[in-house]
């Protein structure tokens, strides 16, 4: 049987956000039926050799279309000429439509546009974010149903942000941000081991998993933690991630004399273990699509305090509390959870039953990939 060739556009250097979503799907996809190849704007990927060993091709583009349109088209067209049946375009916002246009010109049978966010996650400042939003809305106002063949989204809010009223709801397919739920089950033994290793044995640990970027709003989180320490002296903050704002956050931590109370653990891969070590999960994001980290935290049985700017569709379990970005409100909620001190139980089975198990979700993706291109098997 001839494999269906799927081109994933694009993946980033590290495993996070949209890239993690793509890699999770690649891990679970039926590799007898589907061939995944990947496009990136990075010179190398942290996980590139793993993909190559499994028979995937990784294409490296040397420039963005806004930097050198002619060169981008040349390189991108050369890739499209390799005989792909599907291009799966993972995006957060509009800054161009050249990818979709070239894919159509080159006769790609299925052009999937997939909304993953409610904003421009790569921005560093509010002014930069505002500039990108203006461009986004300009392009969104002129897109048509014919731009792609399929329209996917992680949430209704992400669909509204990316498609507005230009794509009918009937044409938009919801694809859950699924995880390997068993891998995020709460494990008390792992919790004790990590807390001992990190010097957190007697601490009440607030935690976060996410890139250190404007979108994730870590500065607010650190201010919340500073005020929390006044109420709960034994509190600690555990941060898993890396990113462009790390130095700024470290400076903020020094200014508040919190160096001994904040633990950075980098990009440790086994996020499920990190979550087991926490007592509360914090997500004060300025915007999100449907963050996998919040699904993972709920599977681990963690109380989650989340910005009210995040979709309430993320409330898979009763563990999620949405709060406005007001420091005192977050501190009150943290205190209430601390005083209540409920015994923690894993919620991974609930998350699976709600439809967020990757092995179940991948079947929907495979079916959606095959719709309209089954003739490639003949």
List the helices and strands and how they pair.
Blueprint: E1 4-9, H1 17-28, E2 34-40, H2 48-53, E3 58-60, H3 69-80, E4 86-91, H4 98-105, E5 110-115, H5 126-140, E6 150-153, H6 156-163, E7 172-174, H7 188-197, E8 204-209, H8 218-231, E9 235-240, H9 246-255, E10 262-264, H10 271-276, E11 280-283, H11 292-299, E12 304-307, E13 320-323, H12 327-340, H13 348-353, H14 358-370
Parallel strand pairs: 1-2, 1-4, 2-3, 4-5, 5-6, 6-7, 8-9, 8-11, 9-10, 11-12, 12-13
Summarize the structure.
The protein is α/β, with parallel strands linked by helices. It has helices at residues 17-28, 48-53, 69-80, 98-105, 126-140, 156-163, 188-197, 218-231, 246-255, 271-276, 292-299, 327-340, 348-353, 358-370; strands spanning 4-9, 34-40, 58-60, 86-91, 110-115, 150-153, 172-174, 204-209, 235-240, 262-264, 280-283, 304-307, 320-323. It has 14 helices and 13 strands.
Describe it.
- The structure is a single chain.
- It is globular, with a radius of gyration of 21 Å.
- Helix 8 links the parallel strand 8 and strand 9.
- The strands form 2 sheets. Strands 3-2-1-4-5-6-7 form a 7-stranded parallel β-sheet, sandwiched between helices.
- With 378 residues, it is of the alpha/beta class.
- It has 14 helices and 13 strands.
- The protein is 38% helix and 16% strand.
